[in-house]
Amino acid sequence: MEEELEQRRSRDVIKIVLFGPESTGKTTLAQMLAKHYNTQWVPEYMREYLQKKWDEQQETCEPHDLLPIARGQIAIENLKEAKASKYLFCDTNLLELVVYSRAYYNEFVDQVLLKHALKAQYDLYFLTYIDVPWVEDDLRDRPEDRDEMFARFKKALDDNHLPYRILEGDLQQRLEMAVKIIDQLKK
Q1: Residue spans of beta strands (DSSP E) within 96-181
Q2: Which of 100, 126, 139, 184 has a CA between 20 and 30 Å from the CA of residue 22?
Q3: pLDDT band (50, 70, 90) for residue 7
Q4: DSSP assignment, residue 85?
Q5: Could you give the CA distance from residue 1 to residue 6 in angstroms, rounded to a whole number?
């Protein structure tokens, strides 16, 4: 089953992750960037999985949900990577699951999840700052902890020496900043 957590890098596609706390515009920005560059974006499987769980059982995420979520996330990413042209924009990745696991489950992280999160490779992370309004929904639950969550996401990038840039401002400012950074990337 661990092979289901393997990221494929079979093509010369630049992979960029939108990374950060909930309600910071990652999904919208991933969609806008994919449209701008006429390529694919990878939706957040965790949202689909947990919304279904909430709708059907009125239950929230538990530690045993993380590996099925990780498998779903990688499956979508691998599928979209095969269809992408030059860039692939990922609205989250396995490292985000690690951050949430630590925050919600007393620093617990499944070692299989951690192994594959650290093994996966991306060319750049866009860390989305918390300077946009909080939007409530069925799954979001920590509007008062945004500073702490942002610090956790930043620490994960710093601790693992991953390449990132912080995106701040409104959605249009973030898009313009991201495009400028991406246009400077070479592969």
Answers
A1: 124-128, 164-167
A2: 184
A3: confident
A4: B
A5: 10
d(CA 25, CA 133): 9
Using CA atoms, how far residue 106 sits from 100, 117, 176, in Å, is 10, 19, 37
Q: Are 88 and 80 in contact (CB under 8 A)?
A: yes
The structural domains of the chain, with segments of one domain joined by +, span: 2-183
* Cα 150 to Cα 21: distance, rounded to the nearest angstrom: 6
Is residue 21 over pLDDT 90? Answer: yes
**What value does the mean pLDDT take over residues 107-129?**
95
Average pLDDT, the chain: 90
172: Cβ contacts below 8 Å, ≥ 6 apart: none
3-state helix, strand, coil in the chain (%, to 5): 55, 15, 35
- CA-based nearest residue to 70, from 12, 10, 20, 120: 120
What is the topology classification, in CATH, of domain 2-183?
Rossmann fold (3.40.50)
